[in-house]
Amino acid sequence: MIYIILFISTFLSYHFFIKRQTWWSNPSKTKLPPGSMGWPYIGETLQLYSQNPNSFFDSKQKRYGEIFKTHILGCPSVMLAGPEAARFVLVSQAHLFKPTYPKSKERLIGPSALFFHQGEYHTRLRKLVQASLAPDAVRSLVPDIGALAESVLDSWAGGRVVNTYQEMKKFSFDVGTLAIFGRLESCYKEELKKNYSIVNEGYNSFPTKIPGTLYYKAVKARKRLGEILSEIISKRREKRMETNDLLDSLINSKGDQGELLSDDRIADNIIGVLFAAQDTTASVLTWILKYLHDDSKLRDAVRAENMVIYEANKEGNRSLTWVQTKSMQVTYKVIMEALRVASIISFTFREAVADVEYKGYLIPKGWKVMPLFRNIHHNPEFFPDPLNFDPSRFEVSPKPNTFMPFGSGVHSCPGNELAKLEILILVHHLVTKYRWELMESQSGIEYGPFPIPKSGLPARFWKQTL
Ligand code: HEM
Ligand SMILES: *[C@@H]1O[C@H](CO)[C@@H](O)[C@H](O)[C@H]1NC(C)=O
Ligand SMILES: *[C@@H]1O[C@H](CO)[C@@H](O)[C@H](O)[C@H]1NC(C)=O
Predict the structure, then answer these.
(1) Residue ranges in 43-141 assigned as alpha helix (H)
(2) Which residues, 6 or more positions from 286, have their beta carbon under 8 angstroms from its beta carbon?
(3) 227 lines ligand 2 (CB under 6 A)
(4) What share of the chain is helix, strand, coil (3-state, %, to 5)?
(5) Sign of the alpha-carbon torsion through 111, 117, 120, 126
(6) CA-to-CA distance for 427 and 464, rounded, in angstroms?
(7) How far is it, in rounded angstroms, from Cα 427 to Cα 293?
(8) Distance (Å, rounded) from C-alpha 440 to C-alpha 181?
């Protein structure tokens, strides 16, 4: 969904005026996938917007099968709704499909952030990011994440109405900065937080150089972020502290000829990781609070599992450990099921770098290719009664390539361990010490830009008297 909003502004104009290639001319004998392209240029964009995007994809899949073509947001595209097709694009033939983002988005995050790249540079950065977010690295963060969870929960208690999603964003941002900087001085943290939120607000707005607009403000705030980060980086370089956070591994990284990463490249990647970490995790956490609220039996089961740990820790007098988080089997399945049902990253985008053939169909060079994660996660063949929230279905592992909430292949999510860990920790403190009520009984979905419960799930929280 994020990508839909993200594409509308930039690519529409780009393809309209510059790329007047005729996508219907087909040099080879192979045929294009089935599907309709709609009107030239406008394509099927209006159909996509006049209905829920997911029912657009669903009805296409029903009509044409697991691979079909369409033309949205100025781009001829091939959509892939099957597990093997997704694997083909993301894993086995990943070198034939490059990441693709509008320039206006690249500019806000920073063009050197790893997810815009492929090949050597991507591999180098990916190793650094992956190592600092691997289980061995994040397990040392458990006590600090616990303290962050307790403090954010404490700030909600007392029964005032809070916007769950906005509050979860504070938590996921703090956890993100913890993984990146370790314990960052609080003045830097505040400056980063405020400026970053301006960047975040401008991300899905229309890109323009007109002063006063959200995008313009975001570009300015991004510049200030670069300055703050460069100050933090030079302080860190002087001190040569031996910490194990992402910032240090970026600073200390040496290329084949011993070359260091420039401050700009470091800053782009730090902002990239923050960007990838915050809204995603916060959306999933918000859904989990809704699912747990709506199903009291499930909530009791999660609470029972966590109370055993809580009591073993002398009612929280000893802090939660990494090993304990690994023992939360019921809670873990709730997270898996939330990732599946909510499928907050409904699909991703790549671009074919050459003419590619898949199962007798041609994917022409330059076309966008979209693996549809949500369609796969909601296919009754793989997940019976797919819209029913039922964590027990994860007692059996899903079939290969049918469950990809964190993507797959070279660009799959390096933050998945941290995301799961911070969710386990927050849920542990929530269910053992708090109860909550939702302000709106009717369900509804909003895009912020990831799907979240309506209005960010306004709720009231109370500390529970045991
Ligand atoms: C529940 C929360 C999260 C979900 C559902 C999620 C999902 C994803 C997905 C699907 C991708 C692949 C996108 C693609 O192939 O186009 C991805 C990439 C990425 N994620 Fe996450 N993510 C989450 C949390 C995080 C966190 C907490 C971090 C970092 C602390 C993070 C860092 C990244 C980075 C850096 C990439 C780009 C990797 C690359 O291009 O090599 N994510 N994420
Ligand atoms: C943004 O960063 C600058 C420093 O570059 C700082 O002075 C300012 O307080 C920060 N916050 C906002 C909201 O601009
Ligand atoms: C936890 O600590 C508090 C205060 O230090 C104490 O009153 C309480 O008895 C302790 N709980 C347990 C189960 O040890």
Answers:
(1) 45-49, 53-64, 83-87, 103-109, 120-132, 135-138
(2) 164, 165, 168, 452, 453, 456, 457
(3) yes
(4) 55, 10, 30
(5) positive
(6) 14
(7) 12
(8) 38
- Contact present, 209 and 216 (Cβ < 8 Å): yes
Beta carbons of 228 and 192 less than 8 angstroms apart: yes
Residue 226 CA to ligand 3 centre (angstroms): 46
* CA 254 and chain centroid, separation: 29
In the structure, what pLDDT confidence band is assigned to residue 58 with cuts at 50, 70 and 90?
A: confident
Pocket test for ligand 1, best of 413, 417, 423, 426 (most atoms within 8 A of CB): 413
Say which ligand is closest to the CA of 315: 3
Amino acid at 41: Y
For residue 317, the CA-to-ligand 3 centroid distance in Å is 6
What is the spatial distance between Cα 137 and Cα 75, in angstroms, rounded to a whole number?
A: 41
Distance, first Cα to last Cα, the chain = 42
Beta pairing partners, 68: 79
Q: Which amino acid is at 144?
A: D
CA distance 1 to 92: 25
Ligand 1: centre distance to CA 416 (Å): 7
Structure tokens at 87: 């694997």
Type of residue numbered 70: T
Give residue ranges with CB within 6 A of ligand 1.
Answer: 114-115, 126, 129, 133, 176, 179, 272-273, 276-277, 280-281, 284, 344-345, 348, 405-407, 411-415, 418-419
- The DSSP call for residue 52 is -
Q: 263-294 and 329-342 are packed helices; what angle lies between their axes, rounded to 10 degrees? A: 100
Of residues 369, 390, 134, 413, the one with CA closest to residue 272: 413
Residue ranges of alpha helices (H) inside 133-255 are: 135-138, 142-156, 164-181, 186-202, 214-239, 246-252
Q: Is the pTM of the predicted complex or chain greater than 0.85?
A: yes
Q: Give pLDDT tens digits for 157-197.
A: 999 999 999 999 999 999 999 999 998 999 999 999 999 99
Q: Are 149 and 167 in contact (CB under 8 A)?
A: no
Does residue 146 carry a pLDDT above 70? yes
The pLDDT, as a whole number, for residue 190 is 94
